[in-house]
TrEMBL record:
Protein name: Lytic transglycosylase domain-containing protein
CDD domains for the chain: Slt35-like
Source species of the chain: Ureibacillus suwonensis
Chain ranges of the Transglycosylase SLT domain: 149-188
Keywords: Membrane, Transmembrane, Transmembrane helix
Transmembrane segments: 20-39
Pfam families: SLT_2
Length: 229
């Protein structure tokens, strides 16, 4: 009579198999996530053509000029005879292209291009003195008629009846208006920049970025306008 063969015990019990499966699910998800994000980073290196032409032109800049602002700089510069690259330089220095946590400075400068209220509305306003914060009612701060009355530099660029330093178009056009009347229209760029902020260090920073942007200005302008067309 033949002896019955003993059944070999499985190396891993069913319970252990189940435990390992449960354990491997999150591990697999982690590995998948790691591979996915690593591939996304790798693609940005392997396929540089995914960068826009404007981004490629600005490679090496510590902070790129946002594409959507360039047409506004150009239009404001043409209207007030101010180099658009100078407007970009001011925007870069003032609020890092509007990426600051707040667009109101500790001394009261407001908006994308950091105007003191009295400069924006006009120093002839009865509440204006000192550094220029003033005590201008909110209803008057953005009223083009009030600004005209008191000789301010605020501009209603988009024709909505409001001159608002927190509106990107109004702010850039207002900066162009100020710089033009402060000396740029006569070719005195450094003088105008100093009038914008009475600091030699400020002038040095603005002129640094102005020269940097000027070197690629024609290329950036061509690409920005082509994108609009």
């Amino acid at each position: 009579m033949a002896k019955k063969k003993k059944r070999k015990k499985p190396l891993i019990s069913p319970g252990m198999k189940f435990f390992l499966i449960i354990l491997l699910i999150p591990a697999s998800m982690i590995i998948y996530s790691f591979v996915y994000f690593a591939w996304e980073d790798l693609k940005s290196i392997i396929y540089p053509e995914e960068l826009s032409e404007i981004e490629k032109i600005q490679e090496g800049f510590d902070l790129k000029i946002p594409e959507e602002y360039i047409p506004i700089y150009i239009a404001a510069g043409e209207k007030y005879n101010v180099p658009w690259t100078l407007l970009a330089a001011h925007h870069r220095v003032e609020t890092r292209f509007s990426t600051m946590d707040t667009l109101v400075s500790p001394v009261g400068a407001e908006g994308h291009m950091q105007f003191m209220p009295c400069t924006f509305v006009g120093w002839d306003h009865p509440t204006c003195a000192g550094l220029g914060k003033g005590n201008i009612p909110e209803s008057e701060k953005t009223d083009p008629k009030v600004i005209e009355k008191y000789g301010g530099y605020g501009v209603d660029a988009n024709g909505d009846g409001i001159a608002d330093p927190f509106d990107i178009e109004d702010a850039i056009y207002s900066a162009a208006n100020f710089l033009s009347k402060s000396g740029v229209q006569d070719g005195e760029i450094e003088k105008a920049v100093f009038r914008y902020n009475h600091s030699k260090e400020y002038v040095k920073k603005v002129l640094y970025y102005y020269e940097q942007y000027n070197r690629v200005g024609p290329l950036l302008e061509r690409e920005a306008l082509a994108a609009i067309d």
